[in-house]
UniProtKB/TrEMBL annotation:
Keywords: Membrane, Transmembrane, Transmembrane helix
Pfam families for this protein: DUF420 (PF04238)
Keyword Magnesium tagged: no
Spans traversing the lipid bilayer: 17-37, 49-71, 83-101, 121-144, 165-184
Protein name per its UniProtKB record: DUF420 domain-containing protein
Signal peptide, first to last residue: none
Keyword Ribonucleoprotein carried by entry: no
Taxon lineage: Archaea, Methanobacteriati, Methanobacteriota, Stenosarchaea group, Halobacteria
Source organism: Haloarcula salina
Length: 193
């Protein structure tokens, strides 16, 4: 218990440093998977497809959980808000593990669409990826502040402001990721790239 208290005390004293460290680790894992640096297993095409479906399911539940968390805080239910947001954060950690496996272990898909549909898909995918990358430190900072401060203390921090930005970026990123998933896998189809 003393170790946990010590870690919480250090994180409380330096939330930006903790945010930066956790964010760098997350980015390193993703770039390591893309760059082939992480020792990841080779996966069958069917497993990669299954991971894509699992990621969509996890992200759907995460989006709903975030929106439920927003509902709770707007109604003054702080403990329920905290539980919802920590659940959403845990789901994003599950997403990260699945995503790293998927990227490192398989092939890429290309949508079978042309013209305006292809352009809309690419724009939504680009915004999804950009928001995913940009929201990491904002989400982590909101979580670090939430875990290291009491509800009364949080009123004296930037948690609410950072949280609003995190929710907006995170929710839009998840939504666009789900739209592009549906377009790619269930509406227009795909071919291996």
């Amino acid at each position: 218990m003393a170790v946990a208290d010590s870690l919480q005390s250090r994180a409380r004293a330096r939330p930006r440093l903790v945010t930066a460290a956790v964010s760098v680790v997350g980015y390193a894992l993703v770039f390591g998977a893309f760059g082939g640096v992480l020792p990841l297993p080779d996966l069958s095409r069917e497993t990669v497809i299954l991971l894509g479906d699992a990621i969509a399911a996890v992200n759907s539940v995460a989006l709903v959980t975030i929106l439920v968390g927003v509902y709770y805080i707007r109604n003054g239910e702080v403990q329920k808000h905290r539980a919802a947001m920590l659940t959403a954060f845990g789901l994003i950690m599950a997403f990260l593990a699945l995503y790293i496996l998927k990227v490192g272990g398989g092939f890429e898909k290309e949508i079978v669409a042309e013209g305006i549909v292809w352009g809309a898909y690419i724009i939504m995918l680009a915004v999804h990826i950009l928001l995913s990358a940009v929201s990491v430190p904002v989400v982590v900072h909101a979580v670090v502040l939430g875990l290291t401060h009491s509800p009364a203390e949080l009123r004296e921090t930037i948690h609410a402001r950072v949280g609003r930005i995190a929710v907006a970026a995170w929710s839009l990123s998840l939504f666009l990721g789900l739209v592009t998933y549906v377009m790619l896998n269930h509406v227009y189809g795909w071919v291996p790239r």
